[in-house]
Design goal:
four-stranded antiparallel beta sheet, 438 residues, alpha/beta
Length: 438
């Protein structure tokens, strides 16, 4: 059996150690040696087997082609970043002028470029701020605005949502010490309900867009203009959690509120996510009146919730750079998606695979635009390929990416609306490879 130190001296493994670190390379060597001890390979093959065992990168996260048809897939990391955002992250990864003015040589405002870009994107906001996610933005608002003497947050029962992974909005807000004053019912809340509950102990009126579900039938809700009028009459602000991060109205999503519209309608503070419809990194975006935003930004909790340089870099590039992938997918021409599916199927059938094009319906996902169906097209394949596409053998993977689709009626559907057009060729190659190993 080759000694470990001699194997680690192999030029290929030595180079990998500089890239991946000693622990990962040594573990690959150990697995290859064990295969030789078990008689699966000869001792002469250990070095080659160890090289084949090496992971592609030091982190365990694996790139995935999202062919589920869900544009913002929470389990797949939500919004994929644009190439410009990825480049910005790489530039910020080392030393950078995060809080440093290169001209004067003195300390500068942290993340000025990202904040200025966010302010330009929503001119109706007097001030903006960024924290690490939308839940953090609400926690910061509740902590900074609700206190002794005015600790109540007035909110409709129909908007006390669960935001995912068993985290619930009421639990999140009450964890800050605030008291929830629930009004109305699950399906109907009126302006009178809010008016009866608003008083001297009210810290703010909270409106939450139920972005991950919809209620139909005998319903009633109160809009921001009415709430803003009520809030102004009592001297309390209206905070609107719009959720999915739409900065301006979108023609395909008429029911999805935007930051610009919410502020125009009178909301004093708007919170949103950066990694959903905006198409950027995970972040909690705050827009609103200068005094309120400044109060939140200077609160001690803001220091614990602040974002790092990589997030600021990606956010700025998302706002100032080319159209991000989520926006591209949302605005994709259904006919173009169908033609892409036809080209993929032509290549797959030429390779002898059972593949055909089917009409499909994609979704926004990520807690945004529930019920909105986006016309799409999918490549239909045998269900047995789902597993090999998700996790092909690492030794044989090479450039074969992980692919996630969805199962319907005993078939695997690869919905191309959520796949970047430049990934079509890689997707086809992955299917051919998976079929050869299935």
């Amino acid at each position: 059996m080759p000694r470990t130190d001699l194997l680690l001296a192999d030029p290929r493994l030595a180079a990998a150690e500089r890239r991946l670190g000693r622990a990962l390379v040594k573990a690959a060597v150990g697995r290859a040696q064990q295969r030789a001890r078990d008689g699966h390979i000869s001792p002469d093959e250990v070095a080659d087997a160890a090289v084949a065992e090496l992971p592609a990168r030091a982190a365990a996260l694996t790139p995935v082609i999202n062919a589920t048809g869900v544009l913002v897939h929470t389990n797949l990391g939500r919004a994929p970043l644009s190439a410009a955002a990825v480049d910005a992250i790489a530039a910020a990864a080392g030393h950078c002028d995060l809080e440093f003015d290169l001209t004067t040589g003195i300390r500068a405002r942290r993340g000025a470029g990202a904040l200025d870009a966010l302010a330009r994107a929503v001119p109706a906001a007097e001030a903006v701020a960024v924290v690490n996610n939308n839940a953090a933005a609400l926690v910061l608002a509740a902590t900074a605005l609700a206190g002794p003497g005015a600790s109540e947050i007035v909110v409709s029962r129909g908007e006390l949502i669960e935001i995912g992974d068993r985290f619930r909005l009421p639990d999140l807000l009450t964890s800050t010490g605030a008291t929830l004053r629930e009004v109305g019912t699950t399906n109907r809340t009126t302006a009178a309900d809010y008016a009866e509950a608003t008083g001297p102990r009210t810290a703010f009126i909270l409106k939450v867009h139920p972005s991950n579900f919809s209620i139909k039938g005998f319903t009633a809700a109160v809009g921001v203009p009415e709430l803003a009028e009520l809030g102004d009459s009592h001297g309390v602000p209206v905070v609107f959690d719009i959720g999915s991060g739409l900065l301006a109205p979108h023609p395909l999503l008429p029911g999805e509120p935007s930051a610009a519209t919410a502020l125009r309608d009178g909301a004093a503070l708007v919170t949103a996510s950066g990694d959903k419809l905006l198409g950027g990194p995970q972040a909690g975006l705050l827009f609103g009146r200068a005094g309120l935003v400044r109060r939140l930004a200077r609160h001690p909790l803001a220091r614990a919730l602040r974002v790092d340089k990589l997030t600021l870099a990606a956010l700025e590039a998302t706002l100032t750079g080319p159209v991000p992938p989520v926006a591209t997918a949302l605005g994709a021409d259904p006919a173009s998606v169908f033609h892409r599916a036809e080209r993929c199927v032509a290549r797959l059938t030429a390779a002898g695979l059972d593949a055909h094009v089917v009409a499909a319906s994609a979704a926004v996902g990520g807690g945004g635009a529930p019920g909105v169906e986006l016309p799409s097209a999918a490549v239909s394949l045998p269900e047995a390929l789902a597993g090999p596409l998700r996790c092909g053998p690492p030794v044989a993977r090479g450039d074969f990416p992980a692919v996630a689709g969805r199962l319907e009626a005993g078939r695997l559907l690869l919905d191309l609306r959520s796949v970047a057009p430049e990934d079509d060729e890689r997707l086809v190659d992955a299917v051919v490879t998976a079929a050869s190993q299935a």
